[in-house]
Design brief:
With 323 residues, this protein is α+β, with helices and mostly antiparallel strands. The chain contains five helices and 13 strands. Strand 3 and strand 4 form a beta hairpin. The chain is elongated.
């Protein structure tokens, strides 16, 4: 009897393995070995709560773990080692990239010279499907498109006005400025410098670069995003239409994979500019497969339960055949 059970065991193992493989495939779950290289964005079943990063919807989005390390290529160098989690979904019109990383304290202000903001960014090649560009701002023949969220920008959006000296130092006396509406006296604002925007429309900057010293902000607020800090963790959602028709902005489409990399700035550690933690390049693929959420029937689970007896029976037959 014992020998018969031993002969049947390989067949049963094969049947169980088939069930597990089906569950992983149908649910969109990926094993840890593949998590460092591919982010699969499935189609959302309904409206995406991009302004609610801690909504239970995001718990159903498959996430991958990406190790970050200090940026040590160009000065000013900086950053640290930790793990960022990233995932993505789409609704056929827009893509939504969700990021999550540990941060002991939130830093949301840049109003004083000694204040630095928490921030995160995702970098794409300017054209989807091309080879991996240079990790630091691309190159003249391989431009990059960067979506950068800043906690300070979000604070400005929430308040409806950019941070002011009077707000930081309530006892400050501000003289009347006679040229308030003349662009010639506000050159940075007139040129669209995001640091000088008094009424920010988005917490995310859409940036284009083709090498060191070429970083340029697109004045069109094509990328939106929202972040929320909770219990020592930032979670941020970045969103943009798949196609925007802007020079330097990546055009995304179904089944066309593209490279992407991530960066995080810790304002509490005075990080800014090149002082940041960065990841290696991963891959992003948008697929038409529907994302299964808690609000939808888990049809794939029902199918697996129905197929389980058949898989076990086949396994037992295979075991008998080898007896």
């Amino acid at each position: 009897m014992r020998g018969r059970r031993m002969r049947h065991r390989p067949g049963i193992v094969l049947g169980v393995a088939a069930i597990v493989a089906a569950a992983l495939t149908l649910s969109g779950t990926r094993l840890a070995a593949s998590q460092s290289s591919m982010i699969v964005a499935m189609r959302a079943p309904g409206a995406v709560p991009w302004q609610e990063p801690w909504d239970s919807f995001w718990d159903d989005v498959p996430m991958v773990d990406l190790p970050l390390s200090a940026q040590q290529v160009v000065a000013p160098k900086g950053g640290g080692r930790f793990t960022l989690r990233a995932g993505a979904v789409h609704d056929a019109d827009r893509v939504f990239v969700v990021l999550e990383w540990p941060d002991a304290t939130p830093n949301r202000s840049m109003e004083r010279s000694e204040d630095f903001t928490d921030a995160a960014a995702v970098q794409f090649p300017a054209r989807a499907g091309v080879g991996v560009p240079a990790i630091c701002m691309g190159a003249p023949d391989a431009a990059v498109n960067i979506w950068q969220w800043r906690a300070a920008w979000q604070s400005d959006v929430e308040s409806g006005v950019a941070g002011s000296v009077a707000g930081t130092y309530p006892r400050t006396v501000v003289d009347e400025y006679p040229f308030r509406d003349e662009d010639v006296f506000y050159p940075a604002r007139a040129l669209g410098n995001p640091f000088s925007d008094p009424q920010r429309a988005s917490a995310v900057d859409n940036l284009v670069a083709g090498g060191f010293g070429t970083l340029t902000a697109d004045p069109l607020a094509a990328v939106t995003g929202w972040g929320d800090w909770r219990d020592g963790t930032w979670r941020v959602v970045l969103s943009r239409a798949l196609r925007v028709g802007r020079e330097g902005s990546i055009e995304l489409g179904l089944e066309t994979p593209t490279d992407l990399a991530f960066a995080v700035w810790d304002g509490g550690a005075r990080e800014r500019d090149g002082m940041k933690s960065v990841s290696a390049f991963a891959r992003l693929r948008l697929v038409p497969t529907a994302l299964q959420t808690r609000g939808n029937p888990a049809w794939w689970l029902l199918l697996i339960l129905l197929l389980a007896p058949l898989a076990v029976w086949l396994g037992l037959r295979a075991g008998r055949g080898g007896a």
